[in-house]
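[Automated response] Your request has been received and processed.

Submitted sequence:
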Amino acid sequence: MANSVPFRTTPQLGPQLDDVFTGLPYWDGGINTAATDVEPSYKLGNVEMGDDGGEYIWVQASANVAATATTGTQVTITFPAYTVATGAGGFYTPPGVAITSGQYFHVRRGAYNAVPA
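Generated structure:
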């Protein structure tokens, strides 16, 4: 039976694979979260493996992305900034979640209801 909410199988400290954040997310207590901070403590481009066999990459939205119920919405990653916008890039946002420009989240390589490549 497929897990509807995949979780990380790697030991890194960071957000859940289906979380979406507005603002800079931090996971280590040594960093000041003042307004002068310019990047999250969990680095853009960080790659995680989920218990569903999927590969997940931490990104930031460069535009609004509409929600798609079962598969997530397909996006394209711009390297090396690790920003995403709607496109045919083969990566998908969390299913059923509308993303607004500037939010941080994981994208999955391949649709959420597909077998990992």
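Summary generated for your ticket: The first strand starts at residue 20 and ends at 21. The mean pLDDT is 85.
If you did not submit this request, please reply to this message.
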